[in-house]
Amino acid sequence: MSELTSLPKADWTPRIVAFFCNWCTYTAADLAGVSRLKYAPNVRVIRLMCSGRVDPQFVLDALRRGADGVLIGGCHPGDCHYVEGNYKMLRRFQLLHRMLRDMGVAEQRVRLEWISAAEGERVKFVINEMTAQIKALGPLNLPQKFENWDREVIELARHVRQQEEISGVTMPTPAEKEAVHV
């Protein structure tokens, strides 16, 4: 399954949600701003105390609500203020990537970066690079995809019912299966 997107308009800019660790990446983003480093303005930053607090559901919810990409930033491994929060995020990130791949969402849309408080220039680079990658991929349009998937499931259910009527064999509904097991 691959990602199906329409061609973006020339003036289209991707919407990126960023979950940044308070102690490192958020501080680096603040440093980038104070240093007047220019980076794409299409990123909305959400500050968390630790990257380990990013629940995969937050990422999925951001995509479901129309984000074209998600950036997660945390302390470098071994430098987490909560000892191993970034390792927790790394494990979750790997599982999240598998799930997104199964959904047909390009892996480049969700990115994990280790950025320390002193790396304001790195924040600028990562945001600009991710914006360019997402722009090349085009809009995700996940809300539209959900509508399409729902239509496909409804059509599949109709097809199954028609086949049951033709063959005379009907499959029990989940409720009927449950009633048999009680």
User: Number of DSSP strands?
Assistant: 4
Number of helices: 6
For the sheet with most strands, the description reads:
4 strands, parallel
The rounded distance between the terminal residues' Cα atoms is 38 Å
Q: What's the overall average pLDDT, rounded?
A: 90
Helix and strand pattern: EHEHEHEHHH
Order of strands in the sheet with the most strands?
A: 2-1-3-4
Structural class: alpha/beta
Q: Percent helix among the residues? A: 40-55%
Beta-strand content: 5-15%
Poorly predicted ranges (pLDDT <50, ≥5 residues)? Answer: none
Q: Which value, in Å, is the CA radius of gyration?
A: 21 Å
CATH domain fold name of the largest domain: Rossmann fold
Q: Which geometry do the CA atoms define?
A: elongated
| Name given to the CATH architecture of the largest domain | 3-Layer(aba) Sandwich
